């Protein structure tokens, strides 16, 4: 059975904006993105929203719904009571372009800064051999749809814009961990993770993991193991002695 929902949507641009109220029809089985599209089709033709797949796979429709970072296409209207006001606002960490669309280029900048996969010289792609456990670890990280909900949520930049230069965010620290744990990657990424990408700023609050729509265990499986590797290199007396002797 359909009903009329109360929606409150942030409208504006980089200079200013406010929340606008809309009363809009909801039908059984619909998700928040359906309602945003209905507002666009019937009440506010100029409402800006980014989306693509409507299947939780492109990572485009990230927003904050009643204050929680979520994918609009994967948030069912049945999550909310029929008399509840559903408030949709743009990702708070990134600059607004217009309405629900933010400028997420920070993430692409960070992605480009990470040195790429470095296999041993002379090893051709068809010659890669890996243990199944290593394949499975990589596969978990590669489920990432780059929705940037984790990047938006982590307090290190959400509450401290000044850290943006020094902190790559959970998604890209996870990428560094993926490469560092890759058995065929020959680069040592531990110093860079700590000194250039801000691993030390992560105090393992796990908020990134809580919002990940792909259920990737970002903190437990990527960030903490990466921190252990950095500590192992820097403070293990045997590693320290080896580094001194062999000048790695
Ligand atoms: Fe989104 Fe999860 Fe990837 Fe972060 S790790 S960008 S929350 S899919
Ligand atoms: Fe931030 Fe996730 Fe670490 S939320 S502090 S990157 S555990
Ligand atoms: Fe693709 Fe929502 S529209 S993830």
TrEMBL record:
Keywords per UniProt: 2Fe-2S, 4Fe-4S, Iron, Iron-sulfur, Metal-binding, Oxidoreductase
Where, if anywhere, are coiled coils annotated?
A: none
For this protein, the record's CDD domains field holds: fer2 (cd00207)
**What's a single GO BP term from this record?**
tricarboxylic acid cycle
GO cellular component terms listed in the entry, alphabetical order: plasma membrane
Q: Where are the transmembrane segments?
A: none
Q: Which Gene3D superfamilies match?
A: 3.10.20.30, Alpha-helical ferredoxin
Entry annotated with the keyword Iron-sulfur: yes
Family under the similarity heading: Belongs to the succinate dehydrogenase/fumarate reductase iron-sulfur protein family.
Q: What is this protein called?
A: Succinate dehydrogenase/fumarate reductase iron-sulfur subunit
| Organism whose genome encodes this protein | Rhodococcus spongiicola
Q: What is the lineage of its organism?
A: Bacteria, Bacillati, Actinomycetota, Actinomycetes, Mycobacteriales
